[in-house]
Design a protein that fits this description.
It catalyses: 8-oxo-GTP + H2O = 8-oxo-GMP + diphosphate + H(+); 8-oxo-dGTP + H2O = 8-oxo-dGMP + diphosphate + H(+). The structure is a single chain. The chain has 9 helices and 15 strands. The protein is of the alpha/beta class. It has 2 domains: about 120 residues, Alpha-Beta Complex (Nucleoside Triphosphate Pyrophosphohydrolase), CATH 3.90.79.10; about 180 residues, TIM Barrel (Alpha-Beta Barrel). Strands 8-15-14-13-12-11-10-9 form an 8-stranded parallel β-sheet. Strands 1, 2, 3, 4, 5, 6 and 7 form a 7-stranded mixed β-sheet that branches. β1 and β2 form a beta hairpin. The radius of gyration is 20 Å and the shape is globular. Bound molecules: 8-OXO-guanosine-5'-triphosphate. 8-OXO-guanosine-5'-triphosphate (8GT) binds next to β1, β4 and β6.
Length: about 325
C-alpha cells in the first residue's frame, strides 16, 4: 500500500489551535483534525499547507511563517499516511469552515487524544511540550538543591522541568521532590521526576516521569498513566525504538555536541540526530552541550527542541 504524504497545519492564534471536524463519510470521519490534506504531485509540503489552509479555512498563511513540528508515519490498516506537521502563528484573516465543516479554536490542554485519529497523539504531545526542557544539575544536598531550584525557576521560559539528582539517596530525593513540587506549583511550573517508576508513584502531583536508559530498558510497558508525561533518555536509534514501544511521550537523544561533563565523547552531530528523528514517531529533544540558542537547529533537524542543564542551572 503506497504511503500518502499529508500536510498537516497547527495554526496558532492567541495560544489557541484551530481544529476542524472531519465529515462523517471520509477516512477517520467524525473525528477532529488539524486542517490539511494530501501533498499533490509537484507541490512542496509548504505549498500544500498554504493551499489546503486557504481551501479549508479561508486563512492566508505566508510560507515563511511555517515551522516544522513533527513527522509521523502511521498505518491505519486501510491507509498508510506520513503526517508532515507544520506550525504557524502568522495566519491572516478570519477562519471559517469553507467546506461546511465545524471549526473551533481550542487551548492545547483541551485537545483530547480520543477525539482525534490515532496518529495524532504525538502531534498533541508535540504541541503541549515546550521547545526547551531544562534538567536540574549538580547539588550537594537537598537544601542546596531546593535553593538552586527556587532561584532558577522561570515559569515563562521553562514551564516544565526535569528534576534529576542521581547522586542523592532515595529518601533525600523524595524530600527534594516534595519541596520542588511545592515551589514549582506555586508559580505554575510542572515537575517531571527522574529515577525509577516508584519515584513517580511516591511523588503525588508530579507532572510525569523521566527514566534513564538503564531503567527504561527493563520495562515492557508504560509505567505512568496517559495524563502524565513519560520521557526516556536515549543515545541511539535502538534505544529510541524501545522508548517508542513502551509508550514514551518524548525522548532526549544525545550527546549531540561535545559536553563539559564528558569532554572525551564526540557528539553524534545534527546529521545523525536528524536521521534518527526522521523515523521516530514522537517528539525528540537534542541533549548534550546545547542551549536555547540551538533550538532553531534542533527544529531544523526535525526535533522538538533541546534539553539540558548548563544553560539554566547555576552550579555545574
Ligand atoms: N488533515 C488531516 N488529516 C489527518 C490528520 N490525522 C490523520 O491521521 N489524518 C489522515 O491523513 C489523511 C488526510 O487526508 P484528507 O482526506 O484530509 O486529505 P485530502 O482532503 O487531500 O484527501 P481526500 O481526497 O482523500 O479527501 C487521512 O487519511 C486522514 O485520516 C489530521 O490531523 N489532519
Amino acid at each position: 500500500m503506497p504511503e500518502v504524504h499529508v500536510a498537516v497545519a497547527v495554526i496558532v492564534r492567541e495560544g489557541r489551535i484551530l481544529i476542524a471536524r472531519r465529515p462523517d463519510h471520509v477516512h477517520q470521519g467524525g473525528l477532529l483534525e488539524f486542517p490539511g490534506g494530501k501533498v499533490e504531485p509537484g507541490e512542496t509540503v509548504q505549498q500544500a499547507l498554504v493551499r489546503e489552509i486557504a481551501e479549508e479555512t479561508g486563512l492566508e498563511v505566508p510560507e515563511a511563517s511555517l515551522a516544522p513540528v513533527i513527522g509521523i508515519r502511521h498505518d491505519y490498516g486501510d491507509k498508510r499516511v506520513f503526517l508532515d506537521v507544520w506550525r504557524t502563528s502568522g495566519a491572516q484573516g478570519e477562519a471559517h469552515g469553507r467546506e461546511g465543516q465545524p471549526i473551533d479554536w481550542l487551548l492545547p490542554e483541551c485537545l483530547e487524544d480520543s477525539a482525534f485519529p490515532a496518529a495524532n497523539r504525538p502531534i498533541i504531545r508535540a504541541i503541549r511540550l515546550p521547545r526547551v526542557m531544562p534538567v536540574t544539575g549538580a547539588m550537594s544536598s537537598v537544601s542546596e538543591g531546593l535553593s538552586l531550584f527556587a532561584g532558577a525557576l522561570d515559569a515563562e521560559a521553562h514551564p516544565l522541568v526535569v528534576l534529576r539528582a542521581p547522586h542523592l539517596p532515595a529518601s533525600d530525593y523524595r524530600d527534594l521532590a516534595s519541596g520542588a513540587l511545592s515551589a514549582a506549583g506555586s508559580c505554575g511550573v510542572g515537575v517531571i521526576v527522574h529515577g525509577s517508576p516508584d519515584v513517580f508513584s511516591g511523588t503525588p502531583g508530579a507532572a510525569g516521569l523521566h527514566l534513564p536508559w538503564r531503567e527504561a530498558e527493563m520495562l515492557e510497558a508504560r509505567p505512568v498513566p496517559s495524563e502524565a508525561w513519560f520521557g526516556v533518555s536515549c543515545h541511539d536509534s535502538s534505544e529510541v525504538a524501545h522508548a517508542v514501544a513502551i509508550g514514551a511521550d518524548y525522548v532526549t537523544l544525545g550527546p549531540v555536541a561535545r559536553t563539559r561533563s564528558h569532554p572525551g565523547v564526540a557528539g553524534m552531530g545534527w546529521s545523525e540526530f536528524s536521521d534518527i528523528v526522521a523515523w521516530a514517531p514522537i517528539p525528540v529533544y537534542g541533549l548534550g552541550g546545547l542551549g536555547p540558542d540551538d533550538v532553531a537547529d534542533a527544529i531544523e533537524a526535525g526535533g522538538q527542541g533541546i534539553a539540558g542543564i548548563s544553560f539554566w542551572w547555576p552550579a555545574n
